[in-house]
């Protein structure tokens, strides 16, 4: 075959996954045919769950229960398993409303996250005034009794909820439980493990989404310490209550990944994002992508079904409107879940030059973060290459290496050798669009 110096050989990335992803990236699009049509079924395709908080008092609302039964495969009691609900008087346990939720879920084949065994808030009155060893013993008895009662029925327990302080300290929150001694958290985990060895045991908190925040770092150090000392902890819950003052951080994927690297599962446990329309949908998409990008992110729970069910209803933070209609945010989440993994393909694919002329450019993906990803291109067939890299809106190439780059337009970069061999790379800020760029090679 004769190589023609000026021949232009367009290399097209051929990937079934890419085709699927192209559909997934369009907010508001219908799921591709063959894709799952509910959140739970879509999440199950990658071995994950998609859950919601449920209020016992709403189970008689047929719109509410219809959506619950259709869409979700994990359930959290919004308030009914908290300490004030389950032990209203010391030593007297009350499980009526919690049981309604647990039984409804299990009858429908759904699993249950238990929330929460020990917390500074929503304590029954009798506990609020206790201190010292009597409080410690009462807390441990509560953990033991409730976890024993539900033994075998709970996928994961929030053993301890919200024990770290907001702000810059990175330390524990002051509370009556904290004042019983810094080891109260590990004591609670050990009691929960003894009571229900089959449940995953989670630490759950809010404002722990941004990797650079002191609170996130404080929780990370505790989990690291627990793992190093054999304290039984299996998972970390990220509540993920977002709004304009507390937006989804660009390093969210980093946070989830770093915790998972400690050897725990991570779960998004109380997701809601105030807003509306495509802005809200994109943020939901980003959170879902971040979870899918982390192998040990085992599932996502939203904190309620319809906007009107939310603890902050005025912020319309959920996936269904007050009438039970699917919002744009719903569709964006479903489409990401249907992509099966992070929409960026996860394996390196070699593309060949079907025309055989000039040179071949092969794209392979590099590291991924919540807001950007790296790509590398390897050229064969010539040392004198000119490679055109085209990204799709709203993507932007924000960095390059091992190449001399010029720009034809904001979306089209021309790359040439700069003396560092025939592999070069770049960083794409993706803006929610995880599609690979197209690359084409010609001989210079
Ligand atoms: O959604 C819950 C709301 O109905 C209760 O009034 C409130 C009481 O503290 O708790 C809400 O749920 C919280 C959850 O248990 C822990 N993380 C924050 C949630 C929102 O406040």
UniProtKB/TrEMBL annotation:
<feature type="domain" description="CBM2">
    <location>
        <begin position="352"/>
        <end position="444"/>
    </location>
</feature>
<keyword id="KW-0732">Signal</keyword>
<feature type="domain" description="GH10">
    <location>
        <begin position="33"/>
        <end position="336"/>
    </location>
</feature>
<feature type="compositionally biased region" description="Low complexity">
    <location>
        <begin position="340"/>
        <end position="353"/>
    </location>
</feature>
<comment type="similarity">
    <text>Belongs to the glycosyl hydrolase 10 (cellulase F) family.</text>
</comment>
<keyword id="KW-0624">Polysaccharide degradation</keyword>
<keyword id="KW-0119">Carbohydrate metabolism</keyword>
<dbReference type="InterPro" id="IPR031158">
    <property type="entry name" value="GH10_AS"/>
</dbReference>
<dbReference type="GO" id="GO:0045493">
    <property type="term" value="P:xylan catabolic process"/>
</dbReference>
<dbReference type="InterPro" id="IPR044846">
    <property type="entry name" value="GH10"/>
</dbReference>
<dbReference type="InterPro" id="IPR017853">
    <property type="entry name" value="GH"/>
</dbReference>
<protein>
    <recommendedName>
        <fullName>Beta-xylanase</fullName>
        <ecNumber>3.2.1.8</ecNumber>
    </recommendedName>
</protein>
<feature type="region of interest" description="Disordered">
    <location>
        <begin position="340"/>
        <end position="360"/>
    </location>
</feature>
<dbReference type="InterPro" id="IPR001919">
    <property type="entry name" value="CBD2"/>
</dbReference>
<dbReference type="GO" id="GO:0031176">
    <property type="term" value="F:endo-1,4-beta-xylanase activity"/>
</dbReference>
<keyword id="KW-0858">Xylan degradation</keyword>
<keyword id="KW-0378">Hydrolase</keyword>
<dbReference type="Pfam" id="PF00331">
    <property type="entry name" value="Glyco_hydro_10"/>
</dbReference>
<keyword id="KW-0326">Glycosidase</keyword>
<dbReference type="GO" id="GO:0030247">
    <property type="term" value="F:polysaccharide binding"/>
</dbReference>
<dbReference type="InterPro" id="IPR008965">
    <property type="entry name" value="CBM2/CBM3_carb-bd_dom_sf"/>
</dbReference>
<dbReference type="InterPro" id="IPR001000">
    <property type="entry name" value="GH10_dom"/>
</dbReference>
<feature type="signal peptide">
    <location>
        <begin position="1"/>
        <end position="24"/>
    </location>
</feature>
<dbReference type="InterPro" id="IPR012291">
    <property type="entry name" value="CBM2_carb-bd_dom_sf"/>
</dbReference>
<feature type="active site" description="Nucleophile">
    <location>
        <position position="270"/>
    </location>
</feature>
